[in-house]
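In the design runs reported in the main text, the only information available to the sequence generator was the tokenized backbone. The following block is the verbatim input for one such run; it is reproduced so that readers can re-run the procedure and compare outputs position by position.
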């Protein structure tokens, strides 16, 4: 069973991993750090954490991360793989592989020798999570309606104690699962507040665009935020022509998506981001009209997203948006 678990996809629950020359790197989930020193190798199914000096397999990582015994680690891994039975048995290994293929991520059919291969989750993957109103109420308190959470299939993962949400490509396929921990001591425990369930491969997706595509095309405009929560908050306000980059910059694959859409693109990134210095945004303006929100009146705090101060402030920023010439 352990041999059948892809270590990159398993560890991507705990830290965001980026491939560099066949090796995956991220911030250590075992010790707080600012520079990525957590190395994962798929070919050997092993990891090494240079910050703590710990290394090994998914089994040893599970023991280190949860501070648990070997038997408890086995239970956690069984639950992750969705299998029962004895470890090491051929039946157990085959069941783990079959379950992973059914519920988990499979290799994308798209390939390019210079691109990293992404993953596609099963269409019913979100069915393993639940709608727990008590747990999801934290996002209601932050201004997201139940209707918007339902539209974007926001759920609760009992196993990891996270709010989870699917990230879909333009075909409606789930290419990743985002997670927001509800653990109040996540910093002390070395957990990431936001994480993804799988490595990204090539990020050629804009969060929310699949769900909002009809409104985007009808309005001939898309408003782009950094994070998924901004899309959900805007949707709660009745603003449905939005999407999120899931980061603070526009990558070349996202630029191509926007260029093909042929609609006006309005960047509504966090206040600290200098939109006009982004080279892919500069390229994008050669293909379509590009505008951006710019807080000249000090309506936002230093690290605020444009939706953080409420609908009225956001609309003021939107109405005063600048054209990127």
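Verbatim output:
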């Amino acid at each position: 069973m352990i041999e059948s678990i892809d270590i990159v996809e398993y560890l991507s629950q705990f830290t965001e991993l980026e491939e560099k020359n066949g090796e995956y790197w991220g911030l250590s989930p075992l010790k707080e750090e600012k520079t990525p020193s957590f190395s994962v190798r798929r070919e050997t199914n092993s990891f090494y954490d240079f910050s703590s000096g710990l290394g090994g397999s998914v089994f040893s990582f599970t023991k280190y991360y949860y501070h648990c015994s070997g038997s408890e680690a086995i239970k956690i891994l069984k639950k992750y793989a969705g299998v029962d039975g004895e470890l090491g048995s051929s039946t157990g290994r085959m069941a783990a592989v079959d379950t992973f293929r059914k519920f988990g991520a499979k290799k994308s059919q798209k390939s390019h020798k210079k691109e990293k291969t992404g993953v596609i989750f099963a269409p019913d993957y979100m069915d393993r999570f639940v709608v727990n109103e008590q747990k999801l109420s934290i996002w209601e308190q932050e201004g997201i309606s139940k209707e918007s959470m339902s539209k974007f299939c926001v759920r609760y993962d009992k196993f990891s104690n996270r709010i989870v949400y699917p990230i879909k490509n333009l075909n409606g396929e789930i290419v990743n699962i985002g997670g927001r921990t509800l653990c109040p001591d996540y910093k002390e425990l070395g957990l990431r507040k936001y994480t993804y369930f799988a490595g990204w491969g090539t990020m050629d997706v804009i969060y929310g665009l699949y769900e909002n595509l009809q409104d985007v095309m009808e309005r001939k405009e898309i408003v782009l935020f950094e994070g998924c929560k901004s899309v959900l908050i805007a949707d709660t306000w009745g603003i449905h022509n939005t999407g999120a980059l899931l980061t603070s910059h526009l990558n070349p694959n996202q630029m191509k998506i926007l260029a093909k859409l042929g609609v006006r693109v309005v960047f509504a990134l966090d206040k600290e981001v200098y939109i006009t210095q982004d080279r892919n945004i500069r390229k994008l303006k050669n293909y379509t009209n590009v505008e951006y929100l710019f807080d000249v009146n000090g309506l936002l705090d230093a690290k605020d997203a444009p939706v953080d101060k409420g609908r009225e402030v956001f609309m003021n920023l939107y109405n005063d948006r600048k054209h990127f010439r």
